[in-house]
Amino acid sequence: MRHYVGLDVGKGAHWACVLGTEGRVLLSRRVEATEEALEAFCSEIAQLGNADERVFGIDLTGGPAALLEAVLIGRNEEVRYVPGTVVNKAREAYAGGEQKSDKRDAFVIADHLRLRWEPFSEVRSREEDVAELRALVAHRRDLLVQDQTRRVTRLRELLVSVFPGLEATLDLTKKGPLCAVSRVARPAAVRRLGEARLARWLEARGVYGAKKLASRVVAAAKAQRHELPAAEAKAVLVAEIASEVLRTKERIDALEARLAELVEAHPEGKLVMSLPGMGAIMTAEFLAEAGDLSRFGSADRFAAAAGIAPVLRASGSVSYRRRAKRGNRVLKRVFYQSAHCAVLCHERSRTYYRRKRAEGKGHTQAVIALARRRVNVLWAMLRDGTFYEDRASLAA
Fold first, then answer.
1. What is the residue-wise DSSP string for 221-287?
2. Domains of the chain and any CATH numbers
3. Which pLDDT score, from 0 to 100, does residue 95 have?
4. What is the C-alpha R_g of the chain?
5. How far apart are the C-alpha atoms of 110 and 180, rounded to whole Å?
6. Which helix or strand (DSSP H or E) is residue 55 part of?
7. Nearest to 68 by CA among 127, 5, 18
8. Backbone angles phi, psi at 179, to 5 degrees
9. Can you tell me the distance from the alpha carbon of 196 to that of 182, in angstroms, rounded to the nearest whole number?
10. Could you give the C-alpha distances from 335 to 38, 207, 290, 319, 376, in angstroms and in order?
11. Do residues 302 and 379 lie in contact, with contact meaning Cβ atoms separated by under 8 Å?
12. Tell me: the pLDDT tens digits for 165-221?
């Protein structure tokens, strides 16, 4: 006899539902998200009937579920991940239709485990270095994609309303231009400072090509004689935001240096990096997200989980394959971006890409086809513990 335990994960508390083999509810209650309460709940389940085995299902991993995972894995329980999208789609098939509650979702999770628990990936204990990789990768993504993008966009908006010629001239994602606008952001201020003093100021801050950059800034200032409205106040804001962007760049650089160290120390880090197009950062994202590949069972299932494998759509006499809309977004992005990089820097990958284009596929389709082939290659590398070698397989 087996017990199926569904847990709808929450921040302060989880809702648990225990089903027997026949689908009868044996227990359904709220469990506080504290170690003491979770341990007591596990002991309570162990006393329910004569179950030979138990399997737990959770709809979230990490974050609010981290303590729950640690308690269950520490007690050697079998834990499966039932994605929230599966729960949301399945909920309507049960009595109550679209109605949602924690209690109902916990029941849906438990019932899905009872009906088809094997397809759901097993949740396993994360090693310390992998847990750190995951945290640092997520923090870098927040800094780079959200905070930094927002600041640079705001910086451009302000600068174009004060000094449009300078905004058009400079790449405000690089250190030199950011240093320049943090010092002067008005044409009049640039002319007063002068090219020589601006160049010396930039050189003192380690800006590469300081004289050339100073010359471009001064040339833009000479081309604009009109002072635009609120220029002084906006220039102060430009300098402030540029300084924030520079500080964030330093934080990102430090994070990337630490990620490179963790990848270097990881037993599979160098192996994954040997695949063309996989730099240290993409390897860090892959290792943090993929975990133990053996839980997927095969390269095909791994590709499907990553959203790289094409999806079959067949009805009557119509049958075709289309690009997957779902899958793990992080893994999908890693495989797509690394494949795109490989097209630029690796001859065999470029040959494969060109062949797909010659077959009539668009750019995106051809890169995804290459990414799908690379999943097989990476799977074999990790399975056999071998570094990448140029063989005919990739171009086949």
1. HHT--PPPTTHHHHHHHHHHHHHHHHHHHHHHHHHHHHHHHHHHHSTTHHHHHTSTT--HHHHHHHH
2. 2-125 (3.30.420.10), 131-261 (1.10.287), 269-395 (no CATH)
3. 64
4. 27
5. 59
6. strand 53-58
7. 5
8. -60, -40
9. 17
10. 38, 34, 12, 27, 11
11. yes
12. 999 999 999 999 999 999 999 999 999 999 999 999 999 999 999 999 999 999 999
Q: Which helix (H) or strand (E) covers residue 14, if one does? A: strand 13-19
- 124 phi/psi in degrees, rounded to 5: -120, 165
Q: Which pLDDT band, with edges at 50, 70 and 90, does 29 fall under?
A: very high
Residue 30 · residue 15 · CB < 8 Å? yes
3-state secondary structure of 219: helix
What is the CA 263 to chain-centroid distance, rounded? Answer: 16
Q: What is the pLDDT of residues 306-334, one digit of tens each?
A: 888 876 666 776 666 666 677 788 899 99
Which residue is it, tokens 């590709």? Answer: 303
Number of Cβ atoms within 10 Å of the Cβ of 46: 12
Tell me which DSSP letter residue 343 carries. H
Burial of residue 249 (CB within 10 Å: 0-12, 13-18, 19+) is middle
Per the structure block, which two tokens stand in for 234? 């906006």
**For residue 267, which amino acid is it?**
P
Distance between CA 143 and CA 327 in Å, rounded?
24
